[in-house]
Structure formats: structure tokens, C-alpha cells
Amino acid sequence: MASNFAFLKSYHGMHKLHHLSHMAEKAYRNGQFATEALLISEISGRLIRKLVKQELPNLNHPFNSEDGLTKLQTTQLLNDELIMLLTQLRTVGRHPKRIDAAFAYQIMVKLHYLLIWYVNHYQDGHEEPGHFKLHRH
User: Fold this and answer.
1) Residue 52 resides in a domain
2) Is residue 96 a part of any domain in this protein?
3) CA 134 to CA 123: how far, in whole Å?
4) Range list of H helices, 9-132
5) What is the pTM of this model?
6) Do 29 and 135 form a contact (C-beta atoms < 8 A)?
7) String of DSSP letters for 12-35
8) Contacts of 39 by beta carbon, 8 Å cutoff, 6+ apart
9) Alpha-carbon distance 101 to 31, whole Å?
10) pLDDT higher than 90, residue 28
11) Tens-place pLDDT, residues 58-91
12) Whole-number Å distance between alpha carbons of 51 and 47
């Protein structure tokens, strides 16, 4: 079955996010929801750091994804929906054993939406967000 995240291979600087997204998708298909949640948390953290580096290029000190998310929120560079989505995906890895199949599917769909938004907004992509198909074994 083709990966829902194969589109990321077409964009510069997205190789690691493609690899991690593919791994999260595979974990979901295998019923490994805790692993999927941890991977999605890692992906969103990397995406937050990418966004901060692009939106705040003069930020010279090191920052983690939590600091980055706070900076993005206080500067209002992203709308509330995107901040909420990034926050939710970043925090799913905090209690991964509590995740069931339905929630695991929801966070995968949200990750897909967020990555499509990112490539369309920052990489001149033309991806359509409605083409997500995911089935478990």
C-alpha cells in the first residue's frame, strides 16, 4: 500500500519528515499506537523548529519545540487552528499508552493535513488535503 506521505519526497529538506511520517503510518497499520504517537510528537517538534527558523530567522539562541511553539503563538505568525494542531500533535507522545485506534487514526489525519499545509505554504507545493487513506492490517 502506498504511503500517504510519499508527497514529502518531492520537497527539499523534507526527507527526515517523510521518513518519520512513513514510520508512524506503518506503526498505525501494525496497531502500534504508542509508537505512532511518539513518532508524531517527534515530527511535530521538528516541524515547529522548522517554522521558527523560517518565521524568525534572526533568533540566534538555541530553542526546543516547546519554546518555539510559544514564540510562534506570541508573535501570532500562525493562526489559532495551526497553533492548536501543532500543540495537540506535539503532546500526543506524553501518554502514548492511552491511545486507542480511533484517536490514533485522528492524529494521523491531522499530521497529514499539517504537512500538506506546510509544503503548500512554505515549499510552493500544490498538494490537495483530502486524499488520505489508511487501513490497518
Assistant:
1) yes
2) yes
3) 25
4) 15-29, 33-55, 65-75, 80-91, 101-122
5) 0.90
6) yes
7) TT-HHHHHHHHHHHHHHHTT-HHH
8) 20, 21, 23, 24, 27
9) 7
10) yes
11) 877 777 888 888 888 888 888 999 999 999 999 9
12) 6
Residue with cell 501543532: 86
End-to-end CA gap in the chain:
11
Cα-based angle 127, 131, 135 (whole degrees, multiple of 5):
140
Total structural domains within the chain: 1
Closest CA to 100 of 25, 38, 28, 23: 28
Q: Which domain holds residue 69?
A: 33-122
Sign of CA dihedral 100, 38, 81, 105: negative
Residue 68 lies in a domain: yes
Q: Are 44 and 82 in contact (CB under 8 A)?
A: no
Give the Cα separation of 66 and 85 in Å (integer): 14
Give domain status of residue 8, yes or no.
no
